[in-house]
Amino acid sequence: MIYPWLEPIWQQIDRYWQQQPHSWLLYGQPGIGKRAFAEHLAQALLCESLQAGHQPCGHCPSCHLFNQHSHPDFLPVSPEETDSTGNERKQAVIKVETVRKVLDFAHLSAHRGGRRVALIYPAESMNVQAANALLKILEEPPLGMVFILVSHHKDRLLPTIKSRCRQVGLLKPDHNQALAFVQQQYGEEATNLLAFHGGAPLFDNENNHNQLRDELLSLLVKPRLLALLDYAAVFDKQKLALATFLDWFGKWLLDMILAQQNMPVMYYPAMQQTLVQI
Ligand SMILES: [Zn+2]
User: How far is CA 167 from the centre of its chain?
Assistant: First the structure.
């Protein structure tokens, strides 16, 4: 499935298809549907009865297996996350052992006699050893093997990896299209949520996170050191990554800069007046 705002981008896939790139890099900001797009591409590469525009047919044996998440020639790879209820925080790293599994997979012969496809999401979560291991196989890919790398931050990928890939940039929908999409799910909250997520319409909306973020914002309006320390303790109990806190706070600071210049704020539109006063 492709989200409607990404449909025009499929034409690029269609155009590059004849060149048969053995590695693709699909990049763009988080929350715009890159993963679904990448899976659609994988399904198309494996489909045994391609339709016009290189669209997967949806009903051949290969498409059936794909839709049941049991296609033997498709290997999706993501970071292994530690249990968030345990003592460790989530660690989003693709390690070299995982990439070795990809290499083993790449050297197998295809079960269904067609291509084999590995999807690496997000590619920047490979650590240095993993990235180097992948690079070797990108330099000499086995016949019939296709790699799809998906990246939220392609500047964090090795230039040597990027240069081996056919790069396709995916864009977020325009504001009205995104807002209409988010409104279907979140009604009145849509404007604020969409702004917080930088205009990207796909996100996990976890209520306890929203509540925690609201608490932070009210603290930042009247900051007191002791209250901030209490907040730090509450935040810590949720086992959220520090990057989450930095994201919330960084967006606040950016909005503050905009408010200072009398510009509309970006991430917390409901706080516009407050930010101006501060
Ligand atoms: Zn098919």
Answer: 16
CA atoms in the 13 A half-sphere facing the CB of 10: 21
Number of other CB atoms surrounding residue 64 within 10 Å: 12
66-80, 99-113, 127-141: the lowest-pLDDT one: 99-113
Cα(85) to centroid of ligand 1, in Å?
Answer: 40
Whether 85 shows a pLDDT value over 80: the answer reads: no
Q: Give the Å distance between the CA of 119 and the centre of ligand 1.
A: 18
- Bridge partners of residue 116, in order along the sequence: 145
- Cα of 78 vs centre of ligand 1, distance in Å, is 25
- As beta bridge partners, residue 26 has 150, 168
Ligand 1 center–CA 48 separation, angstroms:
5
CATH of 4-169, one of 3.40.50.300, 3.30.2010.10, 3.40.50.2000, 3.30.1480.10: 3.40.50.300
User: Do 96 and 130 meet the contact criterion of CB atoms below 8 Å apart?
Assistant: yes
**Positions of CATH 3.40.50.300 in the chain:** 4-169
What's the whole-model pTM score? 0.87
Q: How far apart are CA 185 and CA 192, in angstroms?
A: 13
Q: Which of 4, 3, 33, 30 is nearest to 196 (CA)?
A: 30
Q: For the segment 212-244, what is each residue's pLDDT rounded down to a tens digit?
A: 999 999 999 998 999 999 999 999 998 888 889
Please tell me the distance between residue 202's alpha carbon and the centre of ligand 1 in angstroms: 27
What tokens does 51 get? 């339709």
> What would the pLDDT profile of 200-211 be if each residue is shown by its tens digit?
999 988 888 889
